[in-house]
Prior knowledge:
Layout: H1 2-13, H2 19-31, H3 33-63, H4 65-88, H5 105-117, H6 120-136
Helix pairs in contact: 2-3, 3-5, 3-6
Amino acid sequence: MAFFDGLLVGLAFVIFIGPVFFTLLHTSLQFGFRYGLAVAVGIVFSDFMAMSMCALGAAAFLQNPKNQTWIALGGAIFLIGLGLKYIFDPKYKPGKQVEVKKVSYLSFIMKGFLVNFLNPFVFLVWIGITSMASSKYGIGEGFMV
């Protein structure tokens, strides 16, 4: 029964369209199949890490109201800093000659990893899935060990 529940949850995730989908699509169209595959490898590794962290107890840490304030503050500072960087130092300036740089597969793996791992929705989903699996199938905290 657990297999079919997992299959249904996996099929439900197929319809999610978010930053990961558009990053993967953009990379594949601009750089080709192999670089798109590198982004997909980063996304898979990121999902595996997020799922492992939630299954091993990060859910209790993230759901604690005392920790949520500090997590939100850290995220806000990160996003404000990122926004200020792009406002005061734009990547592309009008009239500037664009240089084509050699790209590596590792940079695209990191791109996929970071786009997925820095998305808070990923952790909310994995917290929900691990909590459901824990309560429905009687598996205790840290069931991956």
